[in-house]
Amino acid sequence: MQSKQIERVYKDVEFLTSIRPFRNYLNIDSLEKAASYIEGIFKENAEETTIQPFEAEGKIYKNIIASFNIKAKKRIVIGAHYDVAGDTPGADDNASGVAGLLELSRLLKENKPLLKYRIDLVAYPNEEPPFFGTKKMGSYVHAESLYKEKADVEIMICLEMIGYFSDKENSQSFPFPFMKFLYPSTGNFIGVVGKTGQKKITVKIRELIKKHSSIPAYSINAPVIVPGVDYSDHRNYWHFGYKAVMITDTAFYRNPNYHRKTDTIATLDFEKMYQVIKGIYGVCFNL
Predict the structure, then answer these.
(1) Cα separation of 85 and 125, whole Å?
(2) Looking at residue 222, what is its pLDDT?
C-alpha cells in the first residue's frame, strides 16, 4: 500500500517540476497550471475547496484552500508554497511541501479519521522573492483574512522543503557552531522550527511526528533573528498573533541545491519524505 502512496507523491512532484516556463512569479500561466492541478486534487478529496484570488503588481495570484471537518470551531492550518525562486525546478523548494499537502488531502479522505479540529490545507504563491517579506505573499493574504474573520486557529504548520535527506557524516550544517552539539551532524532528520515562547506546541508536534512515522524529528525554538527561523510562510501567521511552526529539512543548511537549477526530483528521498507526511497526518487528528 505504501509503495502506491509514495508513487502518487512522486507523480505530484514530477508534474510540478516539469512545468515550463518555471513556476515563478513572472510566469502566471505556469503558476495557473500548478494551481489548477492542486485545485483538481483538492476537489477530489476535500469537503470544501475554495480559491482566494489577490492582486500583486497588476497580476492575479491564487491561494487554493481545501477544508475538512468544516463545522469545527477551532482549526489547524497546514500550508505550503507552490512558486519557485527564479528559473529552477523547485523539487525540494517547494514541490515537496505541496505534494505533502496533496497527499494529506488524500489520506484525510481515504481514512476518514475522527477530527477534533477543522483542517485547512492551503497552497500559496509568492513565497519567493521579490514578494518574500511583503504583504503580497499568498500566506500573508491568507493569514490576514483569518485575522479579519476572527478565526480560531490552534496552530499553523508550514511545510517548507521536506524531501532532501543525506546519510553522509557532516551533511548537516547550522547557523551557529554550538548547535552541532545539540543536533545531529547527519542530515537524515526532519526539523520542527518554532519561535521563542512556543516550545510547548513545537515539542508536541515533534513528538507526534515521531509517534506516527519512522523519521527522526528534532525541534528548535529560537528568536526570529536566527537566520532561517522565519524564512517561509509561517512568518505571516506569527505577524497576526497565531502560533505557527515550520516543518523543514533545514533548506540551505543541508540541501546544496537550494534555489539552484539542480533542485531536481532525482535529488529527493521519497521514502523519508513520505514518513514526514505520515507524521504530519498523525498531527491532524492527535493534536
Answers:
(1) 11
(2) 94
The whole-angstrom separation of Cα 169 and Cα 153 is 39
Q: Based on the structure, what is the number of domains in the chain?
A: 1
Question: What long-range pairs does 141-146 form, CB within 8 A, spacing at least 24?
Answer: 141/52, 141/54, 141/63, 142/52, 142/63, 142/65, 142/77, 142/79, 142/236, 143/236, 143/237, 143/239, 143/240, 143/242, 144/236, 144/240, 145/52, 146/77, 146/240, 146/242
Through-space distance between the first and last CA atoms of the chain, rounded to whole angstroms: 26
Q: What is the pLDDT of residue 127?
A: 98
**DSSP structural state of residue 55:** E
The cell numbers describing 39, all together, are: 485545485
How sure is the predictor about 243, in pLDDT bands with cuts at 50, 70 and 90?
very high
Return the CATH number at 108: 3.40.630.10
Domain that holds residue 231: 2-284
Quote the crossing angle between the two packed helices 2-18 and 28-45, to the nearest 10°: 160
Sign of torsion over alpha carbons 83, 51, 154, 236: positive
With CA atoms as reference, report the closest residue to 50 among 116, 141, 134, 180: 141
- Phi, then psi, of 17 in degrees rounded to 5: -75, -15
2 falls in which pLDDT band (50, 70, 90)? confident
Spatial separation of the C-alpha atoms in residues 251 and 162, rounded to whole Å: 9
Gap between the Cα atoms of 188 and 203, Å rounded: 19
d(CA 209, CA 138): 26
- The answer to whether residue 240 scores a pLDDT higher than 60 is yes
Q: How far apart are CA 287 and CA 280, in angstroms?
A: 10
Asked if residues 185 and 172 have their Cβ atoms less than 8 Å apart, the reply is yes
Find residue 184's DSSP bridge partners: none
